[in-house]
Write a structure and sequence with these properties.
heterotrimer, A alpha/beta (379), B alpha+beta (417), C alpha/beta (329), B: 417 residues, alpha+beta, two-stranded antiparallel sheet, elongated, C: 329 residues, alpha/beta, eight-stranded mixed beta sheet, 24% strand, globular
């Protein structure tokens, strides 16, 4: 976007930006409407057959009246089959928008996927498809069935006026209309039992408000599992829960993942939860991936100053420090960002090259990648 | 109770629900806040309001309406209760010339020559036959003519009527009310059945309608904010008592009460001027309840916010807590609702006047003016009498509602859609 | 820890503090029961130290903090501040005392009046109590803001222009401007981003050192509490179940609930995959707490006695208090 050009007397011309962005939105919206689905347009090939999902240079922007928020700005990473991948970052870093882009739930008209692709290997030897180009009717068949989501707020994610059994049953019925009522009910009860709810039969008849937070999150997980998804996107699944309940839910998720052989995309800011759960970790900052690697890579050999700072700034039980390391400054908002390293202002390990363009990827090992100008050979 | 939802991420929390119900990720809203440094809340609201085209259109329509009613009367030569008259007689050329010199008629008008027809066998008098209208200046060129002329579509005001009588141009019986006359240069929207100028009445009627709306709104806002505020802040018994009063008022049927009140006023011979004030009080007394409920609800929820707890720990007095911390936060809702209330009151007043329950003639309000439509002849032949006030009401209410909606969106952009 | 001896060193002594909230129902709002948000808790806070209060949601830790500041009227019990019983003070006297003990809140978004500029938020109380004279007023506000890491040109801005961390700094500045000696920090960092959390925690520690402040630090995060506290109390369903010096409590937890909490806290190290004690079941409602030991419904070591008898909150030695029938064993 040419927003740098839209300045008047050195100040941002907000009106011009607003106008340009509104035009931009219109362009994408009309493109969406025109889209007729011909399978050749969205069929694609996976780079690695082992992967379930491949994010490739994904760009999701919000065109607002005061500028373009590059919420997701060229994000690439893979989700291998049967693994748990954690996307970590602070508020506004774009981790949630990444998952919403995957589900194609980015809130329009301001939010638009403007570039890149999300390749998805369909189940049962099906074609690989690009989710960003998939027409709306097609994505609806995948959403909830093959890719399921667990939300942060178990309080608001369930409809308060329907019984648990009905809500779960409906989710099953929509995707598997051939099942009879009894079969749906049987499946509902079995699901609730699977997520560790003892009185499953009784719970189907209760309303959401009658359940505790932990129970509701279990129901949400049951709902996500209802159709044997290939991928479960868990967006801060335990943030709203108490520590002891969080332990229960994390335990359950780990156990279930092996049982149903699905991948998990875990989105969280809690580095403790990530260490517990994740095989691979993707660290995001201001809409970009700044470091990614296996859990051991990230926790034992963090390379990016931001990752190092984050790990140093959390107090750990049993680790005695007089003062916590704190990253100076504030979490930036990815709007009007210069094309330098986004972390530069807060970084205490800057080198001369940091004044240049956004850094390229440095591959420290097969799995460990970092986007930084530091000299890694000297470590 | 302690709520422990750790690390609620202000930017992202909104994105987590089902997409259909949940809000936009507040990234745009949030960021607008971060980059527009040094902008007060008022400026922010103003900017958003100005961007809303409908609201701005409404605002200007309302402004024009107010100017029309309050300033327009200064430019209007006619008074509110001025009736217009029409001499039902023919004038000679000499008389016309004299009238012109006395400035009773303008030289630009046209006059209609009258000839006497055959004597009717039934009535025993000759029937007048009108010719083609001729310009007055033409007629005056020939002072010796014996022709007589009628002044159709020319009206006389009360003062002029007396001169006509004094000069002996006509007798008292020959002067009649200039009623239901069509649109002419003299009367932009014609005259009504009582010989009032519709355009003038429209201005003065609008004054009453707008003032009634405004004053009722002020009363209602005052009552609603104070009582709702007390109920919300102190709670307990006061809250219960005030809210029961609200319930009682809400269950009073409006029209029967006003009919009752109207006959009571007629019984005790209350003057027409006073009647307007009583009406304002009655309408206000019936309309504050919605605001009181709203304010109470807002204050109840604000009271539980942590910043109110903070004022307590800081040790501020109750007065300061209410007026500096609570009220400014309720102001947006009050302003929006007050605006919409004005519209509602104007409508109610019009409806009452239309039914003859509100302000009564000779006072004019838009409602009374539409009331003329009861006469089928007026309805069919004289739309200029009842249509303009109707359009005025429509325009005003729509403008007010647009402004109100615009204000609401400006105060709380998330309410949109 | 002993309540009788250390009158001089203890800034705060809480004795048998309880707070019940009535449950009203029906048309006449008759009181049909009570939520026992805080039940019979006692502790002391020595001057210049920090007491951490941990527990899960609904355990009454926030209520305890608010009740001891007299924001809620205590149902029972006494709160001695410098030897003065706050629970018995009149409203006017209490208001005069207010600047002495301040509070920092959890949610930096709802704890600042949205329609007020920052200088007003911080300075309002200073003027109301005449903390400093008129001539020094502005300098005082600026000094406090600087101490809390805010710039003086922020004075005329409104809260919505700040990020969460900065807002929390404003909250701290508001409290600090009144020159308090005791501050209740109610989950001050749990709504903040990880990198900002550390900033605020460091700020709080630094201010404590400079000004000799006393804190009651309420949190659900065991690691944060360990980092900042000198003594730690663990609450469950309105009762204090364990109270000890920090090192003692984390090294040698005696109550099974404390043990479970410690084991449930996730450790940011993928190599530590410990076998944790996962508590089954949910937290019971404080309106209808279990009989006997309130923890017995979820306790892995529950025996018959637990269902019948309420365990005493007693010292097991060295000021390590615990409320469990089997703590000694």
């Amino acid at each position: 976007m040419s927003e740098q050009a839209k300045t008047k007397n050195g100040k941002l011309d907000l009106r011009a930006i607003a106008k340009a962005n509104r035009a931009e939105i219109k362009k994408y919206e009309t493109a969406k409407k025109k889209h007729h689905a011909s399978p050749s347009e969205y069929q694609t090939k996976m780079r690695d057959s082992n992967n379930l999902i491949e994010f490739d240079n994904l760009q999701t922007y919000f065109f607002t009246d005061i500028g373009t928020v590059k919420a997701v700005n060229g994000v690439s990473f893979d989700i291998p089959r049967g693994s748990t991948i954690a996307v970590v970052g602070e508020s506004g870093c774009g981790k949630s928008v990444t998952s919403l882009s995957l589900m194609r739930l980015v809130q329009g008209p301001q939010g638009q996927i403007v570039g890149g692709s999300i390749r998805y290997q369909q189940s049962s030897g099906g074609q690989a498809i690009d989710l960003t180009k998939l027409p709306d009717e097609e994505i609806r068949k995948i959403r909830g069935k093959e890719i399921a989501m667990i939300f942060q707020e178990p309080m608001t994610s369930l409809n308060p006026v329907f019984r648990i059994g009905k809500q779960l049953g409906e989710a099953i019925h929509i995707h598997l209309p051939e099942l009879s009522k009894e079969e749906v009910h049987k499946r509902t009860v079995a699901l609730l039992e699977m997520v560790g709810i003892a009185r499953a039969e009784g719970i189907t008849k209760s309303y959401p408000h009658e359940l505790s937070g932990g129970m509701r999150q279990r129901v949400m997980i049951a709902m996500a599992l209802a159709l044997d998804p290939q991928l479960i996107v868990a967006d801060e699944p335990t943030t709203a829960l108490d520590v002891t309940i969080q332990a229960q839910i994390l335990d359950l998720l780990r156990e279930l993942k092996d049982k149903i052989n699905a991948s998990i995309m875990l989105i969280t800011h809690d580095l403790g939860v990530v260490a517990e759960m994740a095989d691979y970790v993707v660290v995001m900052y201001a809409g970009r991936v700044i470091e990614q690697g296996t859990a051991e890579d990230i926790y034992d050999r963090p390379a990016h100053p931001y990752t190092i700072g984050l790990l140093g700034s959390i107090p750990v039980i049993g680790r005695k420090v007089e003062e916590l390391y704190s990253i100076p400054g504030n979490v930036p908002n990815p709007i009007h960002m210069p094309d330098t390293c986004y972390f530069k202002e807060r970084c205490e390990r800057c080198v001369a090259a940091c004044d240049g363009n956004y850094p390229d990827v440095v591959e420290l090992s097969d799995t460990h990648k970092v986007w930084c100008y530091r000299d890694f050979s000297k470590r | 109770m302690p709520t422990q939802d750790p690390k609620m991420q202000p930017e992202e929390q909104t994105t987590h629900g089902q997409p259909s119900v949940q809000e936009q990720p507040s990234a745009p809203e949030h960021s607008s806040i971060q980059t527009t440094h040094g902008v007060t809340f008022g400026q922010l609201v103003f900017r958003r309001f100005v961007r809303n085209k409908l609201a701005i259109a409404g605002f200007f329509a309302l402004l024009i309406m107010i100017l029309f009613c309050f300033v327009g009367t200064l430019l209007n030569p006619y008074r509110e209760y001025e009736q217009f008259f029409d001499p039902d007689v023919s004038f000679s050329v000499q008389q016309l010339s004299e009238m012109k010199d006395l400035n009773l008629i303008s030289e630009k008008i046209k006059v209609t020559p009258i000839k006497m027809g055959a004597v009717s066998s039934i009535l025993g008098t000759a029937k007048e036959v009108a010719g083609e209208p001729i310009a007055l200046t033409e007629v005056l060129k020939n002072p010796s003519s014996t022709e007589t002329f009628r002044l159709y579509h020319t009206s006389f005001r009360l003062a002029q009527k007396n001169i006509l009588l004094e000069k002996g141009f006509c007798t008292g019986e020959e002067i009649k009310l200039y009623n239901k006359m069509p649109i002419t240069g003299q009367h932009l929207l014609g005259t009504d059945v009582d010989g009032f100028d519709v355009f003038t009445r429209l201005q003065y009627g609008g004054r009453v309608s707008l003032l009634v709306g405004l004053i009722c709104m002020l009363f209602a806002v005052f009552l609603g904010a104070v009582l709702g505020g007390i109920a919300g802040y102190y709670g307990g018994f006061l809250d219960g008592a005030i809210m029961r009063i609200v319930d009682v008022i809400n269950s009073i049927p409006v029209f029967p009460i006003i009919i009752l009140f109207n006959s009571f006023m007629r019984f005790s011979k209350v003057g027409d001027q006073m009647k307007i004030y009583y009406l304002i009080i009655i309408i206000a007394a019936l309309n504050w309840t919605g605001l009181a409920r709203l304010v109470r609800g807002q204050i109840l929820s604000l009271r539980e916010q942590e910043f109110m707890l903070a004022t307590e720990t800081v040790g501020l007095r109750a007065g300061r807590r209410i007026f500096r911390h609570l009220l400014p936060n309720v102001m947006p809702q009050i302003i929006v609702n007050a605006t919409l209330l004005v519209g509602g009151v104007i409508l109610l007043e019009s409806a009452l006047s239309f039914l003859g329950l509100g302000v009564s003639p000779p006072y004019s309000t838009w409602g009374i003016m539409i009331n003329r439509v009861n006469d089928p002849l007026v309805m069919i032949h004289c739309p200029y009498i009842w249509l303009p006030p109707g359009l005025c009401i429509l325009l005003t209410i729509m403008a007010i509602n647009f402004v109100g909606d615009g204000l609401r969106d400006a105060f709380d952009p998330k309410m949109k859609r | 820890m002993n309540t009788q001896t250390s009158e001089n060193t203890n800034l705060l002594e809480i004795k048998n503090l309880s707070k019940y909230f009535p449950i009203k129902s029906g048309l006449l709002q008759r009181v049909t029961g009570h939520v026992r948000a805080v039940e019979d808790i006692s502790f002391t806070i020595p001057k210049g130290s920090t007491l951490g209060l941990v527990g899960e949601s609904g355990c009454g830790k926030t209520t305890a903090g608010r009740t001891l500041l007299q924001l809620y009227k205590p149902t029972k019990g006494e709160v001695f501040y410098n030897g003065m019983n706050l629970a018995k003070l009149s409203r006017a006297k209490l208001r005069k005392m207010r600047p002495e003990f301040q509070m920092i809140f959890q949610d930096p978004y709802s704890s600042l009046s949205p329609r007020m500029p920052v200088s007003e938020i911080i300075g309002e109380g200073v003027r109301a109590h005449g903390i400093v004279g008129k001539t020094e007023y502005e300098a005082h506000i600026k000094k406090i803001m600087e101490e809390c890491g805010l710039q003086s040109h922020h004075m005329n801005r409104y809260p919505h222009e700040f990020s969460g961390g900065q807002r929390q700094r404003i909250c701290i500045a508001r409290a600090l401007a009144l020159n308090p000696s005791f501050i209740v920090c109610d989950e001050p960092v749990s709504a903040l981003d990880v990198s900002i959390q550390a900033q605020i925690i460091n700020l709080l520690k630094q201010l404590q050192k400079e000004r000799g402040l006393t804190y009651l630090f309420i949190s659900h995060d065991l690691s944060v509490v360990e980092h900042i506290s000198d003594n730690v109390g663990v609450m469950y369903l309105g009762s204090m179940v364990e109270l000890a010096a920090k090192e003692e409590l984390y090294a040698n937890p005696l109550h099974p609930y404390t043990k479970a909490l410690l084991s449930a806290a996730p450790i940011p190290d993928p190599k530590v995959k410990m076998n944790r004690t996962i508590l089954s079941g949910d937290i019971p409602s404080p309106a209808n707490p279990p009989s006997g030991c309130k923890f017995h419904t979820r306790c892995p070591q529950c025996k018959g006695i637990c269902e019948e008898q309420v365990p005493q909150f007693q010292d097991t030695g060295d000021g390590h208090y615990v409320a469990c029938h089997f703590a000694g064993a």
